[in-house]
Design a protein that fits this description.
- By secondary structure, the chain is of the alpha+beta class.
- Among the domains are: 86 residues, conserved putative lor/sdh protein from methanococcus maripaludis s2 fold, CATH 2.40.420.20; 107 residues, Helix Hairpins; 80 residues, Efflux pump adaptor protein, beta barrel domain (Elongation Factor Tu (Ef-tu), domain 3).
- The chain is 35% helix and 35% strand.
- The strands form three sheets. Strands 1, 2, 15, 16, 17, 18, 19, 20 and 21 form a nine-stranded mixed beta sheet that branches. Strands 3-10-13-12-11-14 form a six-stranded antiparallel barrel. Strands 7-6-4-9 form a four-stranded antiparallel beta sheet, with no helix packed on it.
- It is elongated, with a radius of gyration of 52 Å.
- Belongs to the membrane fusion protein (MFP) (TC 8.A.1) family.
- Keywords: Coiled coil, Signal, Transport.
Length: 410
């Protein structure tokens, strides 16, 4: 049907009226929601400390481990232990064939006895020679005095014309010979007193004594005993095999108590010191034990490029076995002078960290610089002051400048 101009105008007016009665758009709804306070929970920025735990893998190990090889080579003729056996310190582990070593001792003993006999003979001869030298010096000294007296008398008689020049010359020659004989006798006595031959013989005796001692030690080394008490963890030989100093035959471990061994990097070792308390987790037996750092090597292991560390366990358990893998938690306690906040208050955006700080009933978005952190706390280096309040729950519903309604913490 045809509509006149009046009817068309009435329809347009009705459409406008209906449009004014429709629901508000999304932007209008968001504005209304933003103005409604968001329920949140808050906490206070305070000074405190952050305990972090550095996890390192290690293993249980004996507190002592000794690998034993003979000091001399030879055939194994007796093997007294087996794997897992408990041995006491001083107990015989294995023995080598001793025939050649016993012969060597006998030869060294004979050489020593001969050297001692030569020394006795040398001493006897030296004593006889010394006495002869003393007697010779006494005789030479007397002859010298007689020659001096004769020469003096001849000299006086020559001056009186009672003797010829030839007689004076003879007396002077006798005096010269007596002086020479006296000097030779004195030198002979000095040589006898030095006993040069005896000194050489004494040196030979000492050399033979040392050779005999070495031979006896070699014979004793053919029997290998346990230097510590513990369990036999390895047996690498059997009766009839040849053993050598380069090949360990038996290994003994002392597992009472067990210790934990680990290796720390340069960065890790700087924050660990002797006496630090640690937590030891052993997943194989689902146990957690307490421990104390007992030793830190001052030198890096160049093969591992790490510093060896030993940890004493507070409690031993029969279920613990050497070489079990453990996880070590080193607790690093910081000073109480840092500002800390709950870690859940901090959130990340575009590579930066923020918190919502309370200003009256308004939440203000604040960038913060953080430091070390644990599972529940984080150090704040900049952006907040002590005593300020921050949102710790409900911040996902906030935006900068939003109104908040602080709820009590449960």
């Amino acid at each position: 049907m045809k509509m006149n101009k009046g009817s068309l105008g009435l329809l347009l007016a009705l459409a406008v009226a209906l449009a004014g009665c429709t629901a508000p758009d999304a932007a209008t709804q968001q504005t209304q929601t933003d103005n409604k306070p968001v329920p949140v929970q808050v906490d206070t920025v305070k000074k405190g400390s952050v305990s972090t735990r550095a996890g390192v893998t290690g293993k249980l190990a004996p507190n002592k481990e000794v690998t034993l090889a003979p000091k001399v080579g030879g055939k194994i003729v007796q093997l007294n232990v087996k794997l897992g056996q408990y041995v006491k310190q001083g107990q015989v582990l294995f023995s080598l064939e001793k025939t050649d070593l016993e012969n060597a001792v006998q030869q060294a003993q004979a050489a020593y006895d001969l050297a001692v006999a030569n020394l006795k003979q040398s001493n006897a001869a030296s004593d006889q020679g010394l006495q002869q030298a003393k007697n010779g010096l006494v005789q030479a000294e007397q002859a010298l005095r007689d020659a001096e007296r004769d020469y003096q008398r001849m000299s006086d008689l020559f001056k009186q014309g009672a003797v010829s020049p030839q007689q004076l010359e003879q007396a002077q020659a006798a005096l010269t010979n007596a002086k020479t004989a006296y000097a030779n006798a004195k030198e002979a006595l000095e040589m006898a007193e030095k006993q040069t031959g005896v000194a050489v013989t004494q040196a030979s005796v000492e050399q033979a004594r040392i050779s005999l001692q070495n031979a006896r030690e070699q014979l004793a080394n053919a029997t290998v005993t346990a230097p510590i008490s513990g369990f036999v963890s390895a047996v690498n030989g059997q009766v009839g095999e040849m053993a050598s100093p380069q090949a360990p035959v038996v290994t003994i471990v002392d597992t009472d108590p067990l210790i934990v061994k680990a290796n720390l990097s340069e960065e890790e070792v700087t924050s660990v010191k002797k006496g630090d308390k640690v937590k030891i987790q052993i997943s194989a037996i689902s146990k957690e034990l307490d421990g104390t750092v007992s030793a830190i090597s001052p030198v890096m292991d160049q093969t591992l490029r790490a510093y060896p560390v030993e940890i004493a366990l507070a409690k031993q358990d029969a279920s613990l076995k050497a070489d079990m893998v453990v996880s070590i938690q080193f607790a690093h306690q910081q000073t109480n002078s840092m500002l800390v906040v709950p870690l859940k208050a901090v959130f990340d955006e575009n590579g930066k960290r923020f918190v919502y700080k309370l200003e009256g009933d308004t939440a203000k978005k604040v960038e913060v610089q953080t430091g070390i952190e644990s599972s529940d706390l984080v150090e704040v280096k900049a952006g907040l002051k002590e005593g300020e309040q921050i949102v710790v729950r409900g911040q996902t519903l906030l935006k900068d400048g939003a109104k908040v309604n602080v709820q009590p913490t449960s």
